[in-house]
Structure formats: C-alpha cells, structure tokens
Amino acid sequence: MKHKFTAEVKKIFIVASSFVFLYGNAQNHTIDQDEKNDVNKNNPEPRISFCGNEEYEKYLEEKYNYKPSVKKFEEWLAPKVLNTKLKLKSARYKDEVKIIPVIVHVVAPEHEKIGEGGNLSDERINSQIEVLNQDFRRMPGSRGFNTNPIGVDTGIEFRLAKIDPNGNPTNGINRIPLVGKYLNKQQIEETIKPQTQWDPEKYMNIWVIYIIPQYVSAPIGYSSFPHASGLDGLEDLKGIEFIANRDGVVINPEAFGSSDTVEGNYRERLDKGRTLTHETGHFLGLRHIWGDNESCELDEKDSHNDYCLDTPAASHANWECDQIVDSCPLAPGNDMTENYMDYSYDACTNTFTEDQKARMLTVLANSPRRASLLTSKVWLDVNDTEVKDTSGDILIYPNPAKDKFEVVISQENETVKTYEIFTGLGQLIKKEEVNASTRFTVNTSSFSPGLYFIKLSTNKKTKKIKFIIVK
Q1: 195 vs 93, residue with greater confidence
Q2: What are residue 363's phi and psi, to 5 degrees?
Q3: Which of 64, 256, 372, 413 is deepest in the core (most CB within 10 A)?
Q4: What's this model's pTM, rounded to 2 decimal places?
Q5: Rounded CA separation 6/18 (Å)
C-alpha cells in the first residue's frame, strides 16, 4: 500500500481551505428533540459530546455503508487476549516496553501564530505527549499514578517522530494552515486526513482541529478503531484504502495538552490531557466501560459491556469521580468512574486495568497498522541505530535500574569520553565527561521512574542505549 506525503504545506492548505465555505451552514446546525433525547441524561453539559466515537461510527455507516461486525472482531480477538494474559505472567514480557511513534498535525487558522488559538505551541504539544506517557505507564509522582489494586502500567509509551516520510528530521509536529477555524467530520474525513496523513503503518496520526457538530454536538475527540487481520467487513481494496487513509485520532485543541505545565486556552475540566488518553484507548481497541449500551448483563466474556471483566458493569457514562455510583446494582462492583474509558473529567481519571492492558497489547500484536507501529523506528534520530540493551560492545547493567547502573566497555582500545542522558521525550537532563575504558557508574537516584536514553561518545563512535528506571 502506497501512502502519499507532500512536503509542500501550500498545496495541502489550498485543498483544505477550499472546503471551508461549508462552515457557514454547519455552524447553524440545530439539535431536534430526538437528538436531545439521545444525549445521556447524566451529562452535566448536554451540548458537549466528550467522545465522538459513536457519532463517528454512525457517520461511517451513513456515508460509506460501513459497519464493522463487533461480534466477529471480538471472536477474533478473544483467544488472542487469553494468549497475551498467559504471556504477561512472564516477567520478561510483562516488563517489555512498546514504543509508538506519533505525528501531531496541527490544523489551525492561517492568521494564528504558533502559540495562539488552535495553533498550539511546541511546549503544549510536548506536555500532551508527557501526559500520555504518564497515564499509560502509571508513572509515580504524576496524575497518571493510582493506588488501585488492579491499576496497571500498560508498558506502552509514545514518542514524537524524529524522521518524516521523506527521511528528513522532524520534531513530530506538522502545521497545516487553514482559512477559517472550524471543520466538520466530512471535511476532516474527506480532505484533511487523506491529504495530510503520514504513513499509518509507521506513525500514529493525531489531528488537532476545531470540530463542529455532525449530529448531536461537537465532540472533543474521536478515534478510528482497530480491525481484525484482513480488515473484516471490507472485502475490496477500495474499502481497505478508505479505512487506512483515515486512520488516527482527532482532538479539539482546547482539550490538548496539560494546564499543569503549560498555560493557555483550555476547555474547563478537560485541561489535563486525558482526552487523548481516552481516544488512544479506542485507537488501541478499548471500548467505553459501559459498552455504549444500558445493559447490566454479564457473561464469561462480558459481552454486553467492554469485554474487560475487571471493569465493573455500568449502564451509562459518568462525569464525576467524587461520588460513588453503582449503575448496575445486581452486578458486583461500583462503576469505575476513575477509568480512562469512562467520561469522567481529567482531574480524577487515572486507571487502566489488567484486562484493558492485555486487550491493548493484543491489538498491538495483531491488528493491521497497529502491529507495524511497533517495528517503526521513525522516533529515533535520523543518524541513530537502535541498540539492544543486552548485547554489543558497550552494556549497561542492571536494566531496569533503581539508583544507579554500570556502563561496561568490552571493546579493547575504546574509551567513553562523555555521556548524555535524555528523557523519553528527548530532553537532555544530564551530561558528564568520564574518559573510561573499562567501566563507570551512573547515579540515577534523582531520576523519576520511566524510559530514558544514554548517549555515549567514544573515541570510535557514538552509541545510544535505552534504559528504564524503576523505584
């Protein structure tokens, strides 16, 4: 499958802007009584659809007569999830880190300078990727940490791309100028995505766009859902191309980034970056914890809800975490309002479960355009070659480490002159001269848990090794 990439922003700008005249009509969309009845009665702000995935599926069905079979997908996935759960009992598999490369497409009015309005600053975009990693890694000291007995570190991390589709350096941010401000789903799906997407087999595409209503209300975000091998329900190549060219996540800029670290214009109570965590859950195969239905029935597969037995049954979405809710009193457990896949506001969501982890890892191992992301190395520097931690002429031990680790140089006549340590997001946090020819110790007692890289400069070469800090 070939994927086009255009480095000429002007060309993309012209194509995208040609559709903006539609905004006048779309902006005046009104909600009839039937639509009002469809809005969950528990929603404190009925004009806001926090997640637009249900609307997105409805759009695909109406526009393209495309309706994937949930039953077939779950039948395909279920035995693979069981196999993943068996693997997770192995310490090696359990501690393995999966890295997903990300490209953020910022679609903003042409007159907005970087840092204004929807043309979010680099710092704000980096803060969002940091939150994504804190949440998926259950990182201590961050909002993504929890003391829930079934809360887990998923082992999944995200890196802004450093190599674009032409092989040139990038910061992982693609800015697309636009006439006007808002786009509806048709404009996003028919124009923006196909014209600006980077190869979805190598990049997780995220579009930051102001969205106007298609049905009930303007969603804060939505995501494409993964599919079974063979793309069940899409028999022809045209169907396959259709899904691939639209694969990715769409987020409103007011819900992108974290007000904890970067000031700016945020949607109230959606200012901690959790919208992307939620939509990335969908991107990796998670469903809403209430299963998008009012049923409280359960069986061995949790078939009426989210297919994760360790998330208690729920009959509706929740928006608050400061009260106990049990929407299915005949099924065990209160609603898990703190779960990222509920609708609870950003400040109180902090949990993925064991079953959700197994489900996401299974999708990453088996689903088209998800499994290939793990083999993509576009998150590395252009001139870097990935080096395994446990082999080669320079080793680090132990890895994972706590307060310190040893760097061992096994090649004769090779001396490490200096080393630099970077966070997983590429921020330089330590640099020292060592002039060591056999071994030396690196103190990591002040490091927070997470993924890091050490860049070693010797008299012969430069080498980068990834390592993990645990506490």
Answers
A1: 195
A2: -60, -45
A3: 256
A4: 0.74
A5: 17
